[in-house]
Every structure is written in C-alpha cells, then in structure tokens.
Automatic annotation (TrEMBL):
Pfam families: DUF465. It comes from the Bacteria. This is DUF465 domain-containing protein.
Length: 79
C-alpha cells in the first residue's frame, strides 16, 4: 500500500524493547536504524505527494530499505 509506514516499531511491536535497547547500546545498529527510518520516511513522502521521481530511484530506495530491514531484523531477533 502506498504511503504505509514500515517503521521497525510498527512492523515488529513485539521487539520494541529489544530494538530500543540496541539503538541505545549499539552504534552500528543505531546508524542502520536511522538510515532505515530516513529511507522509509523519504519513500512514504514521495508516494503520498505523488512526487516526480524516476522508477530507478524508487526501486533503489526500496531495495536499500529492504536490505537494511533484513539486516536489522537479524540483529534484533538474535538477542
């Protein structure tokens, strides 16, 4: 669905405490989580405003968001 939030805490509420703990205590996780959040926000804004952008840019942004989400998920489900 266009414009839908894919924030980590929205998609994985059962891991809220773990995610917040990792953000506070793991600088690499925090950096990746911030990048994920920024990408998700940018993608949603572009979708909601129907802003002109190339398909290639949107595909790359969504791909990067997906890769980051997988990486982050693996980290917070291991703890």
């Amino acid at each position: 669905m266009l414009g839908e939030s894919h924030a980590l805490l929205v998609d994985f509420p059962e891991y809220t405490v773990t995610i917040l703990t990792l953000i506070d205590g793991d600088s690499e996780f925090a950096t990746n989580a911030r990048r994920y959040h920024d990408l998700d926000t940018e993608i949603r804004k572009l979708e909601l405003r129907n802003s002109p952008t190339s398909d290639e840019f949107m595909h790359q942004a969504k791909h990067e968001r997906s890769v980051l989400k997988d990486k982050l998920y693996l980290q917070f489900t291991k703890t």
